[in-house]
Amino acid sequence: MRELFDLAEKYGFKAPLVSVPDDFDFKVFVRLCSSLNISPTTSTVASDIFIALQEIEELTASLDFISARINRKLSNVRHHLVQLEKEGLISSEFITTDPIKKRRGKLYKLAIPKGHLIAAVESQKENISSDSFQSVSSSTVETINIERYDDKTRFMELQIVRYLVKAMRTNRKDKSSTISIKLREEGRAKPVLITARAEEGRLIYLPDMSYYASAITWLINHISERLNESEAIGETFTLPLEPLITMAKDIPVSEASAGGYINNAIQSLQRLSATTFDMRDFYDSNKDFIVDIELYYKLFRLEAIVTYEDSKKVEKKAAVIQFPRSTVKSIVAAVKERRTLNDMLLIDSDVFATKNEIEILFGLWAREHLLSGRQAQQLYAWNELRESVAPSSSLNEFKRKFSNMVLANSDPSYRAKIHEAVEKRIVKQVGTCHLSEQRKGELIVEYGRATVQGYLINIGYSPDQGIPVIAFRRDMSALHILGKLEDRR
Prior knowledge:
five-stranded mixed beta sheet, six-stranded antiparallel beta sheet
C-alpha cells in the first residue's frame, strides 16, 4: 500500500484521491467514453475532474477538493468514478494519506484501456464473439476509399431529416419500443402522424444516424460510378465496418479497429435495421413525393455481420446491408438527372460530433431550412420550438440540452438587458448567458445569444407575451455555409 503523506502535508488532502497521468491524452479518453456509451453526465464529470487536476502540480487531489471545485457532492463524484471504473476507464489502488494510523483509502486514476482491455470490456457487456459471425471472401466486400470523404461531406434524404429523425430517441436511457409524434406544418389541415416502432430491440437512437449518413453517402458515390460504367445496380452490399466507423465518427482507421467502436457500430446498425416508420395524414398535391415517403418505411435492413481477411490476412468485420429498392431507384434517378441535392440534404459529419442529441437535431433542422429555402419561424416559445425541432423529447430535456448548446456557442460580446419579471429567477451567469434553475442542477438560459449552423439565436423575455421567447434570424455565417455547399455540388 503506497504512502502519499506528502500530499496531506502540502495540500491537506486526505483519501480518497483521484489522479491523472502526466502524458494523459484526454481527447482519446473522450472518444472512448463515446464509443463505450458512457452517459453525458459521467463524461462531463470526468472532463471537470481533468480540468480541476491541472491546478495541482502532482495532478492528484482529494475528492473533497474536486467536489468543491466542480460544485458537486462528494458522493456524486464518487458515483461517476465508480461508473467509469466499471468500464475500464478508471483504475484504482489502495493507498494511505494518514501518517499516524495509516488508515487505508482509495486512489482513482483516469485511464485509457488499450487493445485487449477494450475488447474485454466490450465482450463482457455484449457477448459479441467472432465465432458467431460467418466468414466470407474478401472479394465480396466493397472497397471504401476513405480519402474521398475527408471533406466531411455527407448526404441524407431530405424527407428523413424533415420527418423521420423527429421520431427517434433523444435519450440514451429511454427503453421505448414505440414513439408517436405529430408534426404540424404550414398549409396542412391535419398534422402528420409519425410512429416509429422497434422490431427486435430498442428504437433508433439519434446518434446512430451518423452511420446511416455515411452508408448513404457511400451508396450515392457507388451508384454514380456504376452508372458511368453501365453496370446494374443492386440493393445489397457488404460494407467493411472500419471505414464506415471512420466516416461516421471522424476518427483515423487505425482507431476504428478498437473493440469499443466495432461493437457500438454493430449495435447502431442493428437499431437502424430494427426500426420501422409509419406515416399517416401525409397528403399533398405532389403525388410522387407522397408515394416515395409511403414506400420508405425502413432505412435499411442489416442482413448479417460477417468476417473476412484483408490484404494482410488480418480478420476484419463487415456489414451486409440491404437498402430499400425505392431508395436505390430514387438515387439512380437523382444521379441521372443531376439533381442529387434536390432530393438529398448535404450536411457535414460534424453535425454528429456532439453528445448533445438536441444539438444534432437542431443542426439538421437548421441545415434543412438553409438549403431548402424554407424560412424558419422567427419567434418561438419553448414548447413551439421543441415541437418543431425535437418533438420526441420532453420539454425539460429540450430546454436543458438546447441551453447547453447555446452556452457552448455563446456570443462573448452579448450584453443582456434583464426584465424585472425574470430578474429573481436568475441564479447564475456563465460567460454572457444568464441562467435559471428549472430543477436541481438543471440550468436553463433565460438570456443569451449564440450563432449555430448559420442562425443567430437570441433567448430572452417578451413583455408583450409575458413568457420567455427564442428568436432566430439568418447570420452572415449562413452565406459561408451555403457557399461551401455550392462548391461541393
